[in-house]
Amino acid sequence: MATFELACFAQSGNAYKAALMLALHGADWQPRFVDFFNGGARAPEFLADNALGEVPVLHHGDVVVSQSAVILDYLSHHFDSYRIDTDDKVRREGLRWLFWDNHKLTAYTALHRFLTQFAPSADEAVVAFMKGRRDIALKVLERHLAGRDWMVDARPTIVDLSLCGYLYWPEEIGVDISATFPAIARWLDRISALDGWKHPYDLMPGHPLPDRA
Amino acid sequence: MATFELACFAQSGNAYKAALMLALHGADWQPRFVDFFNGGARAPEFLADNALGEVPVLHHGDVVVSQSAVILDYLSHHFDSYRIDTDDKVRREGLRWLFWDNHKLTAYTALHRFLTQFAPSADEAVVAFMKGRRDIALKVLERHLAGRDWMVDARPTIVDLSLCGYLYWPEEIGVDISATFPAIARWLDRISALDGWKHPYDLMPGHPLPDRA
User: What is the spatial distance between Cα A104 and Cα A136, in angstroms, rounded to a whole number?
Assistant: First the structure.
C-alpha cells in the first residue's frame, strides 16, 4: 500500500488541489477512485470516511483528512513545504485566500462547470447567476496577480494550488483565460512549469467519462 | 479609541460571527458602520483595508484582519479561548467545518436570504436553487449536532460561532428551525445562553434598514 491514498476522481478540481500537492512533492501515493457520477460519494463506505460526502479524502496511515484546504494544510506540514504559517501575516493572508477560494472562486467556477458540463439539465438563470459570480471572482484574482508571481509570498504555497484547482480546464469552464486574464494565465504557466506538475486528467482516474444514457 | 474596531453592519451574519466573539469575551470594541446597502463595501476607503470588498474587517492596533473565519482564528489566539488548535484532530475537524460553513452553509443561506429579503428582484429559479442547497447543508448540520452539544469539542469553539452566523434570523431565512431542525435549535439555545450573547440586530448598527425607494 502506498504511503498516501487519495479518494478522488478526474473531474474534481478540489481533488486535484490535493493530488497536485502530492505530485509536486514526489510523494508515494495512489488514487482511490470515487465513482462520483454513479453515486460513489453517497456510498456508505465513502460516507464512513467523510460524513459530508465530499471528495477529496486523504488516507495517511491511520489519519483520515477531508476537505481540500485542510488536506493541503496537512500535507504542507508533513512535507514542510508550501506552508503558509511561516509568519503571522502570510498565515492570515493565506487563510483568507483559502476561504475566499472555497467560498467564491472554486464554489462558483465548479458549480457553473458542473451545471454546463455534467448535469443532465440546468436552468439558464441559475447558470447565468453562477457565471456572473464566477467572473467577479476571476477579476479579483486577476487584479491580485497582476505584478506578482505567487499569491501570498515570494514562493508558491498551498494557496496557489487551491486557487488553480479548476483553471486548467479553460474549455470546460468556458473562459479564454489567456485572452481575458493575462496575469492569471502567466501564473498558471508558472504553476504548470513546476517539477512534477500534471494536468488533472493525467493525475487522477476516470477520464474520459463513459457515455451516459 | 477602542482596542478593537469591527467594520460591520447589522444585516451581515459574517460580521456577526466576529462581533459575537468579541461580545462573548467582553472585549473593548466598537463597530465601524459599513453602509453596505448604499455601496459602502465598494468605497475606496473600505477597499483600501480589504481589496476583496468583504465585510467584516477587524482593526486591532496596526493589524488589519479580514474574512470572518480568519478573524475568529485571530481572536481565539488573542483571547486564548474558543481555539480549535488545542490538538491536531480538533484542529483538522474545526478547519474542515469552517471551510464547509464558508463554502456551503453560510454561502447558500446568506445568498438565499439576500435574494429574498434585500435584492430589488431575484429570479425564482436561482432562489429555488439556493434554497435546495441551503436545505441540504442544514440537514448535514442537524445530523452532526444530534447527540452532541458543540460542533468539534466538548466546549464551544470558533466553529460554533461561525456556523450560527445566519441562523438567528429564522423568519428572514424562511426556516422554522425549532420545528424542522431540533438539534440545531437546541444548539442555538446553548449558544444564546452564553454570557454576553446578543442577537445580531442588538450587536451591530444599521437595523432596521431605512425604507428604500
Answer: 9
Q: 10 Å Cβ neighbour count for A87?
A: 10
pLDDT digits 0-9 by tens, A121-160: 999 999 999 999 999 999 999 999 999 999 999 999 999 9
Q: Which residues of A touch B92 (CB under 8 A)?
A: 65, 70, 74
Instruction: Please give the Cα distance from B50 to B95 (Å, whole number).
Output: 22
> Grid coordinates in use for A28?
508515494
Give CA–CA dist A174/A128, Å, rounded: 12
Q: Are A92 and B70 a contacting pair at CB < 8 A?
A: yes
Q: What is the pLDDT of residue A212?
A: 62
How close A194 gets to chain B, by Cα (Å)?
Answer: 27
CA pair distance A71, A64, nearest whole angstrom: 9
Q: Which residues contact A148 (CB under 8 A, 6 or more apart)?
A: none
φ, ψ (nearest 5 deg) of residue A70: -70, -40
For the cut 70, the answer to whether the pLDDT of residue B116 exceeds it is yes
Residue in B101, B102, B159 to test binding to A, most A beta-carbons within 10 Å? B102
CA distance B202 to B198: 6
Q: Is residue A113 predicted with pLDDT exceeding 80?
A: yes
Residue B142's φ and ψ, nearest 5 degrees, are -55, -45
CA distance A179 to chain B (A): 23
Query: How much is the pLDDT for A148?
Result: 97
Question: What does the DSSP assignment read for B121-141?
Answer: ---HHHHHHHHHHHHHHHHHH
- Does the beta-carbon distance from B98 to A100 stay under 8 Å? no
Confidence (pTM): 0.97
| Predicted complex ipTM exceeds 0.95 | yes
Rounded to an integer, what distance in angstroms lies between the CA atom of residue B193 and that of residue B83? 19
Which residue of chain B has the CA closest to A136?
A: B52
**What's the pLDDT tens digit per position in B152-171?**
999 999 999 999 999 999 99
Residues of B within 8 A of A165 (CB-CB) are none
pLDDT at B3 over 70: yes
Q: Quick one: which of B97, B177, B104 has its CA closest to B144?
A: B97
